[in-house]
Specification:
By secondary structure, the protein is α+β, with helices and mostly antiparallel strands. The protein is built from 15 helices and five strands. It is 50% helix and 9% strand. A five-stranded mixed sheet has the order 2-3-1-4-5, with helices on one face. A hairpin with a 3-residue loop joins strand 2 and strand 3.
């Protein structure tokens, strides 16, 4: 049976949505929602994902993300599994939480990124039919804690992991941009709001015909995954571990034996662990075998220590991102 399209490439923008299995709630308490956002923050750090917008409803969630590394599938796999395992543990349940795979629509940034964020920020309003006036809508959205809307309209309240700058830049800078974006969203609630997701039917791309044809032409010669729909191929195949090792050796001018030597603790060895995890679909135990036969806990500790160093050292972060 065919799957929806998965088009992945660096610096792509996506709208991502997951719905509860049989439309059941995926959040039962505010504690679930807080944990969801914390998990989103951690997963986005691990995979270098930019979170542009989010909205949590009782039985589904929306995300708008940018993928500098072209690794949406790896990010969503880690993120969804982490939340579902914790949710099941918190509520003493077993089984599927989500209704199948997540939906991911590629967004034409220039034409529809603003439309998509407005649509998901207004999602709570569409769920409450009793809210009608502009004043009611404004108050309701400002009081709704579980979307990124308030981070956009109140610069002093920006959620730490949220990337608002690019979107607000369409409206200028500072408080003026925040006010203009707020009005843009509220204007969408004043009349019949265009649903940008109707554009994605059949091919998973939110864009005009020219953009859709451009994407098809761009990816038509890539190898197809036989579980994907045949219109467009998947751009980014997983690298082999040896590919990653050779690229790091060449880029950093470090002998392979030093990278793989058990007991070595230099940052490039930890970087290799992280790159293997992100790009090769390997478990930490498998990475441990490659890194000289270390235990999976050593891999986990090495990756965590690298993240701490990246937060504290901008120079190291620049080198890591460049690699």
């Amino acid at each position: 049976m065919s799957r929806p399209l998965r088009i992945e490439y660096p610096d792509a923008y996506y709208h991502v949505m997951c719905r509860g299995n049989a439309r059941q709630n995926i959040f039962l308490t505010d504690g679930d929602r807080y944990y969801f956002l914390k998990t989103l923050e951690k997963s986005s750090e691990i995979f270098s994902i930019n979170i542009i917008a989010y909205c949590l409803m009782n039985n589904h969630f929306h995300l708008v993300v940018k993928t500098p590394l072209g690794n949406l599938s790896a990010f969503m796999r880690q993120f969804n599994v982490s939340y579902v395992v914790a949710f099941n543990c918190f509520h003493s349940r077993v089984g599927h939480l989500y209704q199948g795979r997540y939906k991911a629509n590629l967004i034409d940034e220039d034409a529809y990124l603003l439309e998509v964020t407005r649509y998901i920020h207004l999602n709570p309003i569409r769920a409450d039919k009793a809210i009608e006036s502009q004043a009611q809508i404004r108050c309701f959205l400002k009081d709704y804690k579980w979307s990124s809307f308030n981070s956009y309209i109140s610069p002093g309240k920006i959620v730490e992991f949220l990337d608002c700058e690019g979107l607000l830049a369409y409206f200028g800078s500072g408080a003026k941009a925040a006010k203009s974006y707020e009005q843009y969203v509220l204007d969408g609630a004043a009349g019949e709001l265009f649903n940008p997701f109707v554009l994605a039917k059949g091919h998973g791309i939110i864009g005009d015909t020219d953009y859709v044809e451009e994407i098809k032409a761009r990816f038509k010669n890539q190898c197809l995954n036989n579980r994907e729909k045949p219109q467009i191929s998947k751009l980014r195949n997983l690298l082999s571990p040896q590919d990653v090792i050779e690229k790091l050796v060449a880029s950093c001018h470090i002998p392979e034996r030093d990278l793989l030597k058990k007991g070595a603790r230099h940052p490039k060895r930890a970087m290799l662990m992280e790159f293997l995890y992100q790009n090769c679909s390997l478990s930490q135990a498998e990475i441990g075998e490659i890194m000289g036969g270390v235990d999976y806990t050593a891999v986990s500790f090495g990756r965590k220590r690298l993240k701490q160093k990246l937060k504290a050292d901008k120079g190291l972060t620049a080198k890591f991102n460049n690699l």
